[in-house]
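Researcher: Let's walk through a ligand-bound prediction step by step. First, I give you the protein sequence. Second, the SMILES string for zinc ion. Third, you return the three-dimensional complex as C-alpha cells. Ready?
Model: Ready.
Researcher: Here are steps one and two:
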Amino acid sequence: MVLDAGRIFCYYLFMRWFVRKEKGIKSKEKKPIPDGVWVKCDSCGEILYRKELEKNLWVCPRCSYHFRISHKKYLEMLLDEGTFKEKDGNLAPVDFLKFKDYPKKIEKSMKNTGLKDAIICGEGKIEGMDVEICVMDFKFIGGSMGSVVGEKVKRAIYRAKERKVPLIIVNASGGARMQEGILSLMQMAKTASALNLLAEEKVPYISILTNPTTAGVMASYASLGDAVIAEPGALLGFAGPRVIQQTIKQELPPGFQRSEFMLKHGMIDMIVERKNLKKTVVTLLRHFLNK
Amino acid sequence: MAFVLDFEKPIVELEKKIEELKAAAEAGNIELEDEIKRLTQKVEKLRKEIYQNLTRWQRVQLARHPDRPYTLDYISQIFTDWVEFHGDRLFADDPAVVAGFAKLDGETFTIVGHQKGRTTKEKLERNFGMPHPEGYRKAMRIMKLGAKFGRPVISFVDTPGAFPGIGAEERGQALAIAENIRDMAVLPVPIIVVVTGEGGSGGALAIGVGDVVLMLEHAIYSVISPEGCASILWRDAKYAPDAAEALKLTAPDLLELGVIDEIIPEPPGGAHRDLKLTAERIKKAIKKHYSRLKKVSPDKLIRKRIEKYGKMGIYKEE
Ligand SMILES: [Zn+2]
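Model: Step three, the predicted complex:
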C-alpha cells in the first residue's frame, strides 16, 4: 500500500512537472525580424526583399505567413494617422518578489520595445470613430501579464466605459508573468471582472488574437471579446503544445491550436488577414453601433 | 496513514513507538507509563518544531499529501443533505469537479469544488483533479442555478491545474476559465472560496473568484507549479524547492499580498491527521463570514467584488 501510493505520487509529480512546464513556442518563431535588405520567410523559406515585405505589412507574399510585428506597427495599421494618444504610459513593473533576474529582464525588454511593460494603451480614431485601444508586445518578456498589464487593461476598460467608446485589444502573450507570482494570476480576475462593466454599458469590445495568445491572457480578457478575431496561423489556446504533448504522450494533430483549428472548433469568430484587419474592425464597429 | 513524507518520518516513528508501548502496557507491563508520557511530550515538541519551521517546499508536499482530505470529505463533514448534480449540458460530466447543493444550519448552499481521487482507479477517473472545460462549465451552471434561488456559494479549490489535453483545447479550456472568472464576479449571491490543497493557477481561479477567500494553513496557491517554474528558471524541475521559495505560494505569503482574507489553522501535523477538526474549523470560518455577507445586498456584493480584484497588483507610476 505504501509502495503503491508512493509510485502513484511519483507519477503524479512527474505529470505535474510536464503539465505546468513552460508554455513554449517553437524556436523558429522566436527569431526577431532581422535587419538587412533580405529576409528569409520563417515558414516557407523564401528569400524576401525587406521593403516589399514591409509594404505587405510583414506578411509573406508567397505563403502568407504573418511575421510577428511590434506594437507600433499595429497602432499605425489600425488607427487613423496621428490620432493616438497614449494613456498610463508611466506605469512600470516592480520586482516585489525579488525574483531571479527579473530586473534584468525588465531592463532588456524596455530597451527592446521602448515600453515600460508588455502593453501600450491609449485613445485614437478608426475611420473617424473614437476608440480605446491596447496593443500587447510579445518582445516584452513574452508579452506576459503582470500587475502593469492587468492594471492598464483595467483602466482602458474603465475609460471605454466612461467615454462610451469601443475597446480594441490586440493580444500577444504567453500568459501570466511568473516573476510576479500570484498577483499576476489575479490580473486575470481584475480584467475579466471589469469587462462586466463594459457589457453593462453596452460598449463593444473587439479582441484581436495574434501569434501567440495563450494561457492567462487567453483565459481572461483575450477570449471575452464581443468579437474575437485571429490573424492566420496564430498559436491560440490555454496550454502550450509542448506541455500537452508531454502530458498525453501522443502526436498532436497537424495545425493543432492554430487559428484555423480554433475556428473549426468554434472558439473564434473569424480569421482575418493583416491587410484586412482595419477594414474588418471598422465594419464590426459599425454593426455593433448600428452606424 | 498510507504515505509518509520525509519530514513526517521522525514524528510517525515516535508515534509508532508510543503505540507499541501502549499495547505492551495494556498487556500488563505498568512500568512503561513514564516512558509513554516522556515520548508523548517529545513527539509534541518535535511536531511543534518541525511544523513551525516548514519550508515552502515542505508545505507544497503537505498540500499534495496523498492522504489530504478532498472536497467530498469536507462536504460530508461540514454539510448535510448533499445532492450532487452532473454535467455541463453541452458535452459531458467531468468527475474532476463536483457541484451540487447541501445544508448548513438549515440553510442551503451551492457547493462546487475540484475533486481528486483516493484510489488508483479513482485518481484516473477524476483525472488527478485536473478539470476539462466541461468541469468548469458544470460548476458555473450550478452556481447560476443556485443564484436563481438566492443560494450562496461555497467553492473548494484543490487542483494541480486545468488539464492540458487535445480535447480540453478543442472544447475551449481558456474560454471556459475566462467565462467562469467573468461570471463569478457578477454572481448576485455571496461567494466564499476555501483553498484546501493545491491552488493550481488558472485552473484554480476558474472556481476561485469570491467575496472572501480562505486558505488552509498548509495549502498553496500559485501562478505556476514549482516544477514548471524551476524548469524555466534553471532548466531542471529538480530545483522545484527553490522555485517554491521564489514564488511565495504559501497561505502566509498570500495573506501578506492581500490575495486571501484569512488562514484557517490546521491540526498538528496537517489536515490529513485530523479531518474532523479541520472540517470543524472550516465550518466555523464559513459561518462567520456568511453571517456578515448575507446582510450585504447583491449589488453591493458585486461592486465590492469587482473593486477588490481591481485593486490587486503592485506597480509604480513614474
Ligand atoms: Zn513564406
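Researcher: And what stands out?
Model: Residues A 41, 43-44, 46, 60, 62-63, 65 surround zinc ion (CB under 6 Å). Residues 6-53 of chain B form one domain.
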